[in-house]
Amino acid sequence: MSNNEPDGAFVFASLFSVIVGSIGIWLHSLNFKSIRKIDALVIHNSLVLHYHLTLANLGVVVAFPFRSIYALFNRFCLGTYGCQLYAVEGMTCGMTAILLACTICIVHRFEVTKGWKLTRASYHGLAMGAWAVGFIWAVLPLLGIGSYSIGPHQTACTLDISRSDRKSLVFLLALTIFGYLIPVGSAILSLRVAWSTVVSSSDREKCIAGKLDVTLMEFLVQLVQPLWFVTRKEEARNPKNKLTERNRLAGQILFFTCLTWLPMGVLATCVMIFQNPNWSRWIYYVPQLLAKVGSALAPLAYSSTLRGYV
């Protein structure tokens, strides 16, 4: 094969980007139209957060033409500036998606336990705050704290996690702790508190009597349990079921978010520990593939919930 021809891995990366990007755009466009149908399930004004989350996930996959073109022709539109722009856009949307998913869970906790009903402007403020924080994380590498470059897999411009200088390592550590672990940990804790609040009356009596222990595994099973069994509208609109389903909806959103970005976090942690090991390019590429797939399939977190409300 001549040097001007892309090898099989680059062709695969290009086709994969096109397929995942197309599916993601299709699913998210459907989600924008159908998400309003959970109006009867969530607090009305909180739909703002769900729309912004859908937009952030869509932003992760919508740039697939740039990734596909680079994988095939080994160049970005607008050259170096195009590379930086692609990386900043993906980083902004990715970090914002994580923050919005966690914000939905934390706000849900206070809606259930405190009866809070924020105004629409307040929800917009929370959403814009998440976008602002995501953008700050994304521009720091442009200011010399970390950096963007063509990844070891040579298929996209992304955050350079292979550098071992002090600033890059500190940035990766801060990003892992403050951008992922703390928000996700807070969201999981919030969901556990919310779930404990809406247990059935009989279980509540057992809790008061000290006869019901809510284990972490039981809590996680309840959160990610599919809602496919809720098919009748009269069941779905039962107030007690609505609270349970709101918990599960938030849990499924967080579950998809964790699955989407956890591999990238594990990879970054391993790179920090082993200090730029001589790994195969696929070790770097697979977590990015999973992040794209997870962002594209994020609307599935809503699909089972919508069955009971359409």
TrEMBL record:
UniProt entry tagged with the keyword RNA-binding: no
GO cellular component terms attached to this protein's record: membrane
Predominant localisation class: membrane
Gene Ontology molecular function: G protein-coupled receptor activity
Location of this chain's protein in the cell: Membrane
InterPro entries referenced in this protein's UniProt entry, alphabetically: GPCR_opsins, GPCR_Rhodpsn, GPCR_Rhodpsn_7TM
Topology versus the membrane: Multi-pass membrane protein
Keywords in alphabetical order: G-protein coupled receptor, Membrane, Receptor, Transducer, Transmembrane, Transmembrane helix
Taxonomic superkingdom: Eukaryota
Residues of the G-protein coupled receptors family 1 profile domain: 27-302
Name of the protein in its database record: Rhodopsin, GQ-coupled
Source species taxonomy: Eukaryota, Metazoa, Spiralia, Lophotrochozoa, Platyhelminthes
